[in-house]
Design goal:
The complex is a heterodimer of chains A (346) and B (175). By secondary structure, chain A is mainly alpha-helical. In chain A, 70% of the residues lie in helices and 0% in strands. Chain A has 16 helices and no strands. In chain A, helix 1 (3-22) packs parallel to helix 7, helix 2 (26-44) packs antiparallel against helix 3 and helix 10 (198-221) packs antiparallel against helix 14 (260-272). The termini of chain A are far apart. Chain B is mainly α and 175 residues long. Chain B has two domains: 2-128, Four Helix Bundle (Hemerythrin (Met), subunit A) (Up-down Bundle), CATH 1.20.120; 137-174. Chain B has six helices and two strands; from the N terminus they run H-H-H-H-E-E-H-H. A two-stranded antiparallel sheet of chain B has the order 1-2. In chain B, strand 1 (113-114) and strand 2 (118-119) form a beta hairpin. In chain B, helix 1 (5-21) runs antiparallel to helix 2, helix 1 (5-21) packs antiparallel against helix 4 (87-109) and helix 2 (26-46) runs antiparallel to helix 3 (50-74). The chains are: A mainly alpha (346), B mainly alpha (175). The A-B interface holds A 1, 5, 8-9, 12, 15, 19, 27-28, 31, 34-35, 38-39, 41-42, 45, 48, 76, 79-80, 93 and B 116-117, 152-153, 156-157, 159-160, 163-164, 166-167, 170-171, 174-175.
Chain lengths: 346, 175
């Protein structure tokens, strides 16, 4: 793609999300979502083969449906309250429709079916943008309407998302689908605590974005999109196998690493609000996630499968230089001792 | 009948939307869009917005829909699908018509309709002139406000249209 056009379209994706996050008029928020959707379609379709086109079409259809539902919720809210500002949603029907629309945009169950298929059909860099930047805008709207969200619907969607994200990722060998199911599960964790303490949702979003960025960049660095291809990285850059190990265990939520911090805080906040069964279920279902991360580390860092000598060399083009990788790796594994700093948040 | 003109026009509006949502060939969809555009213009005009209604006719029907009609005529097939040629299309069209007829009967018969919002019968659709809109027409003041207080909206929508052109060109470029 022409670099100037590509820069313009990428800046429009950023502009769309910025407009969503900083507007106080519901119509401008809807315009921001549509601008974001329109501009990300050619980014998803960077290579022109039928898979990317199919993935972009699926993404466009689901997100456009979600935008239509959002518009309907905005209009019902307008009819019942007579004003367009975002403070809270004044009508339960509008609140339910808006929550469903934003859940469709995020990829929460039962609207999660597009996430693995779209993520698998596009290139690694596009998948990176899809799973990190595109989650910011709907989550910011959920944060802003959080006082008026129906708790039953949101918690049902959150728990089902954690279950589907863990269970659905078990049989995958394609790395992009694994990351997609991991995204579904993390969105479930984020929305579970949204009504109780929205600050923890933002904390989880921050740490999730750091870890997902790290994982995707490690995959881009070793140019691998399947588990088999990733298991050959010991041959090319043995150091990245250790880094993959650490980052994956952090994503699974194991204690001395920073991925433990959001899960710990969320479980603490839920138990403070006297719900015990729910965080227990969530923690147990996070084990499913941990299982397929561990399978990935097993084949990548911990074992070298027996293979013939000509299979040992990994063919790829020049190694891409990724500037932000070292700070991201450090941040996605060593942030846990900073947990007492959370007391300065609201 | 004239007091309930908005209600009648809105029924025709919904029926024409059903007509193109049941997916006949795009040429026939465009035909129904002309009808729905004209009816929508009528609805806006009944609320006093003559400028916006004229805008619908000129720009939407006379600009965008004409271009759509020409491009569809270039890309059409030998036997395009009408509503009666395909069982599925006719079934969906009749289903939509049936639901609209049932809704209209529900509105006409009962005193109060409370689906998502309450309105009490057909009388709510009649337009009352409250008379306190002052010297200026509200709708022209809205258009003026778009270019003064709403400058940010103009910038954003203008940028979206530009990026829309770039995106469409990029998507249809192929390799």
């Amino acid at each position: 793609m022409n670099p100037l056009i590509f820069t313009t379209i990428l800046m429009t994706v950023l502009l769309g999300t910025m407009i969503v996050m900083m507007s106080s008029h519901w119509l401008m928020i809807w315009i921001g979502f549509e601008m974001n959707l329109l501009a990300i379609i050619p980014i998803l379709m960077k290579k022109y083969n039928p898979r990317t086109m199919e993935a972009s079409t699926k993404y466009f259809l689901t997100q456009a449906t979600a935008s239509m539902l959002l518009m309907m919720a905005i209009i019902i809210n307008l009819m019942h309250s007579g004003q367009w500002t975002i403070t809270k949603v004044f009508n339960p029907t509008a609140s339910i429709i808006m929550t469903s629309a934003l859940a469709m945009k995020l990829g929460l169950t039962p609207f999660h079916f597009w996430v693995p298929e779209v993520t698998q059909g596009i290139s690694l860099t596009s998948g990176l943008i899809l799973l990190t930047w595109q989650k910011l805008a709907p989550m910011s709207i959920l944060y802003q309407i959080s006082p008026s969200i129906n708790l039953n619907i949101l918690l049902t969607m959150a728990v089902l998302s954690i279950l589907v994200g863990g269970w659905g990722g078990l049989n995958q060998t394609q790395l992009r689908k694994i990351m997609a199911y991991s995204s579904i599960a993390h969105m479930g964790w984020m929305t579970a605590v949204l009504v109780y303490n929205p600050t923890l949702t933002m904390l989880n979003m921050l740490i999730y974005i750091m870890m997902t960025l790290t994982m995707f960049m490690l995959f881009i660095h070793s140019s691998s999109t399947t588990m088999l291809s990733l298991s050959h990285t010991w041959n090319k850059t043995p150091l990245t196998t250790t880094l993959i190990l650490i980052t994956l265990l952090s994503m699974g939520g194991l204690p001395p690493l920073s991925g433990f911090m959001p899960k710990w805080m969320i479980i603490q906040e839920l138990t403070k609000n006297s719900s015990i069964i729910l965080p227990t279920l969530m923690a147990i279902m996070a084990l499913l996630n941990l299982y397929f991360y561990m399978r990935l580390t097993y084949s990548t860092s911990l074992t070298m499968f027996p293979s013939t000598n000509n299979m040992k060399m990994k063919w790829q083009f020049e190694t891409k230089r990724i500037t932000l990788l070292p700070p991201l790796i450090v941040m996605s594994s060593l942030l846990l001792p900073l947990t007492p700093m959370l007391s300065i948040l609201d | 009948m004239m007091t309930y003109i908005v209600f009648i026009l809105s029924v025709i509006f919904v029926v024409s939307f059903v007509g193109f949502s049941s997916k006949p060939s795009p040429i026939y969809g465009g035909l129904v869009l002309i009808v729905s555009g004209g009816v929508g213009c009528g609805i806006i005009m009944n609320f006093g917005g003559s400028f916006l209604g004229l805008m619908v006719f000129l720009i939407y029907l006379g600009g965008m829909l004409v271009v759509f009609g020409y491009t569809t005529a270039m890309a059409t097939e030998q036997y395009p699908e009408v509503w009666v040629s395909n069982t599925t299309v006719m079934g969906v069209f009749l289903l939509g018509l049936l639901m609209e007829v049932m809704l209209v009967l529900y509105v006409l018969k009962s005193e109060e309709v409370g689906v998502v919002f309450k309105f009490s019968g057909v009388g709510d659709w009649a337009i009352y002139d409250t008379g306190d809109s002052g010297v200026f027409s509200e709708e022209i003041m809205g258009v003026a406000a778009l270019y003064s207080y709403g400058a940010w909206v103009v910038i954003v929508t203008g940028w979206s249209l530009l990026v829309g052109v770039l995106v469409v060109l990029e998507v249809t470029r192929g390799d």
